[in-house]
Structures are given as structure tokens and as C-alpha cells.
Amino acid sequence: MTAHRLTGAPVAQRLRAETDGNVATLRRRGAVPGLAVVVATDHEATLWYVRSIARAADKAGVHCTVVDLGADAGADELISTLTLLSADEDVHGIILQTPLPPGVDGDELVAHISAAKDVDGANPLSLGRLTVGQEAFAPATARAVVEILEHYEVPLAGRHVSVVGRSTVVGKPLLQLLLQRDATVTVCHSRSRPLERYTSEAEVVVAAVGRPGLLTGALVRAGAVVIDVGTNVLDNGDLVGDVEPVSTTEVAAALTPVPGGVGTVTTALLLLHTTQAALQAGGETASVRASGQGASA
Q: Each residue of 40-93: pLDDT tens digit?
């Protein structure tokens, strides 16, 4: 068996087309969607990612401002910046990029991002709304996983999905998105041992821990669909995921590549969310947001 590659390109292309339509609507109104990315790190891989967002925004007609506060920025400076951006009518989307300086509490900071501009679903209010099925921007990476699964028509209702990782960026919001689609979800973490007990029976496995080679073919059920969310930079500069691709490809029915998989869709979603926020700021209805609900029981 050789796993089918679930590339992110066709999914991102569809999302970019929707973004283009929103940008055209806004421009007819004389408005330009604005995205602000707040950075407080000198981590090169992060800075590379931020530059890639800025390039994609420029191509999409979204005005992107990178607010680089430096790796020694304090919590007060970050809070002040997020508060000002939340009040700025020309800014429709705000992203607080991680990692943050040592000693700075990210959970405290994201609460200062306006929920209406929280295009990466970081504010606890956004996460709470997502949990109860109300309108909210889902974290883009978590939503990217679902967008890929739905694009490739991977059934979710009644299926067992194992999510490896419980972060507020991917694992926890992804749990809610999958439940809304009637999947049966197991969320694994560092205390879930042995890991194969939870992954080997799942029909869909999502790896989102940030540990190269964590998931191998030995931990995956034959014919499973595997989504690799990991983005890890090796010492030689190579970008790899959390899934060991050679052994997993021999067992799984389908696998997302790294790079070229989830990350591609994540960036497209951030820009789409920004245009949706801009439309809503202008009083126009935009179908945003919380991703759809399944049955309640």
C-alpha cells in the first residue's frame, strides 16, 4: 500500500478564491482588509513564517502590518500594542505570533485581542464560543485539518479520530470541530501511554505535538488517514512533520505532506478570516465562522 498524498494546494486554492471575492466586495465599498501580526521573538523559523504570511497577504490584496516588538518585549508593551490594534478601525484581523519572550504569559495577552478581530481563534472568548457552537473564528490550523478532510471527502460522522496533542492552538479546538461533525474523538497527550493503544484503532489520526518522527507506521491502523500538523526545523534546516513518512506511507491510505500540507491551508484561512472580519466590521453578513454544528447528542 502506498498512501495517497493529501496536499494542501487545492484546498488553499479554493479558500483563496473565496478571499478574492471578499476583497473585491470590500474594494467596491472603498475598504481594504487589514491584518496585523504582532511579533516578539528572534526565532528565525517564526520570522520566516511571518514573512510568508505577509507575502501571501500582499498577493491577496490584504494589507498586512508586521509589528515587531523585539525579543525583549515585556507584557505591558505587548498588551498596549494589542489594545491599540483592537481599537484601530483599519485593522480587521490580529495575530499574536508565538513564541513569546520568556516570562510572558500568552494566555493573559490573547485576552486583549478583540474577539471580532481574533482571526486565529486565540482569545478564550473565541474558544468558549467555539465549544458551545456559537459564531467564532476557529484557530486556523485546527480548521485547516477539517478543511483538508472535507475537501478529500474523508468521512467523519461516526468515525473514530485520534488527535495526538492537546494544545489550545490545535488539539482542543480540533476536538470541538470534529465533534460538530459527529466524529468520535480521542485526544492523546504526554500521559497517554502506550500511544498505540489510542492511535492503532483510529480511522483518522492527527499528529500535532511538535516532535519529529513521533508517529510511525507501527502506531497506525492499516488504511487510516493521517494528518501531519507538525512543523519541525531540523539542525540541517529541513522542515519535517511529526509523522515518520516512510513507514507510515506503507500502512496508511492517505497522508498529508510536510511541507505542502496543513500549513498551506492555515495561511489561506488566516487571510480568509481577515476578509470575513472586515465584511462584518462594515455591517455585511459573512459566513464565518464557527464551522458548522453536528447533532448535540
A: 999 877 888 899 999 999 999 999 999 999 999 999 999 999 999 999 999 999
Place of cell 472580519: 277
Q: Is 113 exposed, middle or buried (0-12, 13-18, 19+ CB in 10 A)?
A: buried
Are 137 and 297 a contacting pair, CB within 8 Å?
no
Contact 200, 178 (CB under 8 A): no
Domains along the chain with CATH numbers? 31-114 (3.40.50.10860), 140-262 (3.40.50.720)
CA dihedral 78, 79, 83, 85 (to 10 degrees): 10
| Cα angle 8, 10, 15; round to 5 | 90
Residues 6+ apart with CB under 8 A from 145: 170, 174, 177, 206, 227, 229, 262
Quote the strand ranges of 46-165, DSSP E: 63-68, 93-96, 160-164
Question: How buried is 70 (Cβ within 10 angstroms: 0-12 exposed, 13-18 middle, 19+ buried)?
Answer: exposed
Greatest Cα pair distance in the chain: 57
Q: How many CB atoms lie within 10 A of CB 184?
A: 15
